Amino acid sequence: MIKDLKILGVGGSPRKNGNTDLLLDSFLKGAESAGAKTGKVLLKDYSIEPCIGCEGCRKTGTCTRFHDGMSLLYPEIEAAKGAYPWLSHLQLQCNCPDEGLH
Predict the structure, then answer these.
(1) Which residues of 57-89 are buried (b: 16+ CB within 10 A; e: fewer)?
(2) Residue 2 — pLDDT band, cuts 50, 70, 90?
(3) Gap between the Cα atoms of 53 and 99, Å rounded
(4) What Å distances lie between residue 35 and 1, 27, 31, 56, 95, CA to CA?
(5) Which of 3, 27, 73, 91 has the CA that lies 20 to 30 A from 81?
(6) 42 in helix, strand or coil?
(7) What's the pLDDT at 85?
(8) Which helix (H) or strand (E) covers residue 9, if one does?
(9) Which pLDDT tens digit goes with each residue over 28-81?
(10) Where does the NADPH-dependent FMN reductase-like domain start and stop, copy by copy (predicted)?
(11) Structure confidence by residue, pLDDT tens digits, 80-90
């Protein structure tokens, strides 16, 4: 059921209220009107270190090397139902999510 669905919108643009942000807001508003619970994070508001491929996260499920903004985001990401990349911003385009890495 959609009412049990939790959707987390992740904005990767460095510009607040830019086109990417407006599109994300529109999507989340539509999901809310259908009964889903939504949340939104803007990555520009977090200090996140780049993945160095140490693979420590393969054992724990979270990054063991850095205690940065991702540590705050892990609970939000885990509470959401799946991850569906769509129109990803350049700053979100790296192989880390595909590899399961931070």
Answers:
(1) beeeebbeebeeebeebeeeeeebeeeeeeeeb
(2) confident
(3) 10
(4) 9, 13, 7, 37, 32
(5) 91
(6) strand
(7) 61
(8) strand 6-11
(9) 999 999 999 999 999 899 998 888 889 888 888 888 888 899 889 889 988 898
(10) 6-82
(11) 987 666 655 55
Q: pLDDT value at position 37? A: 92
Distance, first Cα to last Cα, the chain: 30
DSSP assigned state of 80: S
> HSE (CB half, 13 Å, CA atoms) of 94?
13
- The tokens for 80 are 């959401």
Are the C-beta atoms of 21 and 42 separated by less than 8 Å? yes
Sorted by sequence, the CB contacts under 8 Å of residue 67 that are 6+ apart come out as none
pTM of the model: 0.74
Pair of tokens at residue 36: 């889903």
Q: 7: which 2 tokens? A: 């959707």
